[in-house]
Amino acid sequence: MSGLLSTPCLEKSKHATLIHHIHISFLLLSSNHSTHLSSLYQQRKQEFRKLIMASKMTAEYEKVFGRFDTNGDGKISLQELSDAMSKLGSVSADELQRTMAEIDTDGDGFIDKVEFATFCEANPGLMKDVAKVFG
Ligand SMILES: [Ca+2]
Ligand SMILES: [Ca+2]
After folding, report:
1. Cα separation of 83 and 70, whole Å?
2. Rg over CA atoms, the chain
């Protein structure tokens, strides 16, 4: 049993080191403006987001995210958020827009897993209620 338990810990510290490395190159690249480096920077940024996601996304968040993301494309649209929120109780269009704006921090109109996990972490009480309804 202890052997089984030690694996996720190792994985976690490996992630932490990787995140650290990528974060450093991220900082270095962001100070340079050449086109080549800026595309590299975009790539790094994506890798960085994936790593953040891997370290933040717990099994519980995954499960709740899956309930919201009904078409399974890996992001939550305004319509999917609306469907999910109506299951929790009635919400006005205004509340829906505000919730979307609050969670969708990069403003692309969709909630991705990083944004979702960040919101879950910031609102543990709310997420418990949500998990009860969708769990
Ligand atoms: Ca979706
Ligand atoms: Ca977004």
Report:
1. 9
2. 18
Alpha-carbon gap, residue 24 to 59, rounded angstroms: 28
Return the ligand number nearest the Cα of 82: 1
Look at residue 8 in the predicted model and tell me its pLDDT.
53
Taking the domains of the chain in order of start, what are their residue ranges?
1-56, 58-135
Does CATH place domain 58-135 in 1.10.238.10? yes
Which token pair is 89?
Answer: 């109780």
* Model confidence band, residue 83 (pLDDT cutoffs 50, 70, 90): very high
Contact 88, 130 (CB under 8 A): yes
> How far, in Å, is the centroid of ligand 1 from the Cα of 101?
16
Q: What is the pLDDT of residues 96-115, one digit of tens each?
A: 999 999 999 999 999 999 89
114 with 56: CB under 8 angstroms?
yes
Which residues are placed with Cβ below 5 angstroms of ligand 1, an ion? 69, 71, 73
Q: Which residue has the higher pLDDT, 62 or 108?
A: 108
The Cα–Cα gap between 9 and 25 comes to 25
